[in-house]
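Person: Please comment on this record:
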Amino acid sequence: MSITVHLADLSPERTVFRPSPLAELGTVLHTLAAPAHHPGAGSWAADISARTPADLADRLCCTELLWGATFSDLLLGFAARPEAEGRPGETLAEDLDLLDKLDDEEYVTVALEFTCLSEYDSLSPRSPLHDEGLREQALALAAARGREQLDFTRRLIDDPPRMRRWMRRLFEECDEAFFADIWTQVGPRLSADARRKRDLLLHHGMRAALTDISPALSLDESGTRLEIDKLADAETDTRGTGLTFVPTTFNWPHLMVLHRPRWRPVVHYPVAPPQPRQQTPASVEQFALRMEALAHPVRMRMCRSLSRSPHTTGELAEVYALSAPEVSRHLAVLRKAGLVTVERQGRYVKYQLDIPVVARLGGDFLETVLR
């Protein structure tokens, strides 16, 4: 399982290393929404939350679907604009200006990616703006995530121009409340890391630059195929676009790859990951039970989804093209091993990976499913 980037027509001039203020703001918001994904971030996240006005915090809850479970490609919107030549804006305003150039249909489709996973790799994806079935699917899945996210999804579909202005103002208020101070602190470090990677590329080649980014990145012997070790299968190429690497301070252990058709491929990588927290180990019997539960490739794939957000049996069945009974049997094994939690929300029964429990199995497994 990996994401493959075919390095077609790629030269150093078409390879960009550069931080993105909007992407970094997205990683901050993700950390606030899912602190369990980020060992050691608890006190920092609490401090940012305390500085966030209540009204702004409420609106961030409405839009959590953009950075909570799934990190929306909107946050790397520069990759959709050929005139940007793979370069994010130097400021948040410049990044938002590039995002504003997307048309309404693409903006809404990308924003509601969590409802359209089966459409992601399609060259001609359906749009919730014009496809009634996809609209109903989007609203149903948003409803399972809460009233606020349902309301946001409905308003985005019904009035894209108004909601796009609303979203831009939301990002600007985050900048005013806390992100401007954060960017002042981390921006120079990210720029320095990007320069280091660029120097390695120019003086020692792509393989050296990739090695400096992450052991999850590898180049084949011919130097024409980049393999990114993730619990996902996808392919993209750099023909006609190029390749961009965006460093981030806050997103460890996630290593994200944008591979949307017609967008420039982007590798969004964490710099200098911290040491994982030490956890009290489980008993030998319990550890063996959990490892046996995780030995099945389908359950490993499910853990990737369940690590990001709660899912129902039906949602998992759709994502992995399985029958509901098959999914239920796999969930029963994970539940017996104590690896998932179960919560009823109205008529929905939601399953989620128990991250603190999984962390006790070792940092390697946790990093793999969250990567």
User: Anything to note?
Assistant: The chain has 15 helices and ten strands. The CA atoms of residues 255 and 371 lie 5 Å apart. The longest strand covers residues 243-248.
